[in-house]
Amino acid sequence: MFKHLIKIAACMGLAAAQAKAQPLTIDSCYAMALRNYPQIRQYALIDKTRDYTLNNAAKAYLPQVSLTAIEGYVFGGFPESGGSNFKFIGLAQVNQTVWDGGATKTQKKIIEASAEADKASVDVSLHDIRSRVNQLYFGVLMVDEQLKQLAIQDSILNNNIRAVQLKSDNGLAYKTDVDEVRAEQLRLHQQRTEFSYTRSGYIKVLSLLIARPLNNEAILDKPLPAGQYAGMDIVRPELNLFKQQRNLATAQAGMQKVNLYPKLGVLGAGVLFAPGINLGPTALSSLGVLGVSASWNINGLYKNNNDKQLTTQQLNKIDVQEATFLFNTRLQLSQSAATIDKQRAILTDDESIVALRRSIREGYQVKYDNGVSPVIDLLNAGQRELDARALKALHEMQLLMTIYDYKTISGN
If we measure between CA atoms, which residue out of 56, 43, 37 comes closest to residue 116? Predict the structure, then answer.
């Protein structure tokens, strides 16, 4: 999954000019954040380590040559050589493995399984990046929705200022009415400034996370909510990690069988004496041996039953860890699903509340225009409409973020 996202990110341009022309999507942010995260380089390191280790294991069937040289003083019952007791002795031995009981084959399986387990562990660590992207991405979208509502309210206040100013110029309204509307608009501008700085902070951190230059005008695409979120299977990378850990334990258990078998090979050895050794009428200066070697360490027979039990316990331990992980994940998904249901229930009333608040504000507008209601009542009604619209927008984004958190928890 992660490698697929990395390939997607590799195809994306990083020019800042494209940020204005093409909105960012949450999936592209996932991919770029993964590609930029330093831990992603561990994949290449794991592959290289595996290749070098496999290459070393493959050399087990190459001839093994050992050379030994001795220069020393010979004493005791060594045959006379007619010369000095200082002698040079050279030893050479060549061992060629014919069958190692399957040790090399099993070792290669262990190396492959270990590399896959290491990669799965990296996958687990990288999965947490999705949560970071969610927080920043939806943080920006929430701020954008609030800024959008403030812009609508600012447009309404601009119309109010023109209307109140006209009435004041004609002596139909007090100057304080104009001041009331302008003060409300200044308070609105303060809120816009605060939200703008909050958005800028989110954008800066997101830019660092995905390694792409983003300015304050960067546009983030609002994702569509998933319909059937509750039916998603759990496909978290932890499950693959447990699988690879089982494969590794099974591969390592193969060494138990290897330890039960003998090892066969061909042996060649040579000895050189200088000066030679007198053996009656002849002198011995060199000696060679060629034959078949066999070795069998029976310690594996003693430990075989215990080793099998250890492997079984190790596999049981992995099963318990997986069951615990699935139990906790299902609890999280259940809590998240309950939150989604609650947020959807709340949203069903938001549209009605906004419509009522709009109608109330329009009613106060008519009352003020007819001179039967003070401007402060109109402003209060406008603020309550703004609060209703802002709350509706917040609830929508919270629902969307919770759905994506649900997807992240399940691994989809």
Answer: 43
Number of domains in the chain: 1
What is the CATH classification number for the domain harbouring 393? 1.20.1600.10
Q: Which domain holds residue 148?
A: 102-261+301-410
Q: At what angle do helices 175-210 and 103-169 cross, to 10 degrees?
A: 170
Give the start-end residues of each E strand in 6-113. 64-73, 86-99
Give Cα 206 to chain centroid, integer Å. Answer: 16
Instruction: Give me 111's structure tokens.
Output: 């190396």
Is 28 contained in some domain? no
In a domain, 120, yes or no: yes
Please state, in angstroms and as integers, the Cα–Cα distance from residue 4 to each residue in 156, 210, 233, 356, 409, following that order: 48, 16, 20, 48, 19
Q: Which of 350, 349, 332 is nearest to 405 (CA)?
A: 332
For residue range 159-181, what is the model confidence (pLDDT) as tens digits? 999 989 998 888 888 889 999 99
Nearest alpha-carbon partner for 137 in 28, 219, 26: 26
Is there a contact between 191 and 389 (Cβ–Cβ < 8 Å)?
no
| Count of Cβ atoms closer than 10 Å to residue 246 Cβ | 17
Rounded to the nearest 5 degrees, what angle is found at the Cα of 172, between the Cα atoms of 150 and 177? 35
DSSP line for 220-232: B--PPPPS--TT-
CA 47/CA 67 separation, integer angstroms? 35
pLDDT (tens digit, 9 = 90+) per residue, 271-324? 887 776 665 555 667 788 888 988 888 887 888 899 899 999 999 999 999 999
Residue 239: strand, helix, or coil: helix
The answer to whether residue 234 sits within a structural domain is yes
